[in-house]
Design goal:
44% helix, 10 helices, Rossmann fold, four-stranded parallel sheet, six-stranded mixed sheet, alpha/beta
Amino acid sequence: MSLVKNNTDIALLERINTLERFIGNTPLFPLQQVFQKEGVKLYAKLEWQQLGGSVKARPAFNIIKQAVQSGVLDTGKKLLDASSGNTGIAYATIGAALGIPVTIVIPENASEERKLILKSLGAELVYTSRFDATDGSQAKAKELFAEAPDEYYYADQYANDANWQAHYHSTANEVLQQTQGEITHFVTGLGTTGTFVGTTRGLKDLNPSIQSVALHPETALHGLEGWKHLGTAQVPNIYDATLADKNLTVTTGDGYDLIRLTANTEGLLLSPSSAANLAGAIEVAKELDHGVVVTMFPDNAEKYGEVLRQIIN
């Protein structure tokens, strides 16, 4: 029995090593039409161009990799976590490729496209009230894990250091290399906060003069998928507020206004959260005389059919 289990573990680790080539290493896109100012350059990482289709592929993969390597996750357990959609899809994509079953606790008002993708990938879905957002989903996931700890590996992306470490070891290095070390400002919105925390820590370790700007939604009832209004929501354990050199508020309208413009001028169909990141990055860039501003486009518009219908009508 021991030999079979060891062989199974080795095979799983080999599959993880194979998949790792398809995580990260996303292109850095120059935005030259939606913003123009002499002496200032604006770029965005196209994060949907990796396995899993969003920025969440980085933390999801690292969480799974570290859990398998440490022995707390094997093919005999289900991966369990709360998600508003993109992390769940990343878990389900990677889990399917590795033979690891996935259970996602998700708010009932998640987009139909997200639900369909998750089901198509074989994920088990547990729904929570739309009024409790992802805070309610986290509470339910913890409850499920407490009831059956031997059945699940609870990934807990909001408190798992493997989340931000994924960006520390990959995103920060990619951004620095792709800008030939010229980046002056990193700008991104806050959700689980892993992207901001990990990339900022990595960039500042490489060059302490780089400024990081954290973007926040205007109210608790915003329309930016994946973002958290930290003033009213449960603050993720991995968040470090001291990392931000500046905090900016971005409205849902700011993001939506840029979706059509970016499609027509840059050829990019952005999700609301990507467009909101762009709005914040433009605000930062406007204040500069010289600089290189980099933001993240977490995903594209493929999972937001209703948003696109609103934009074109």
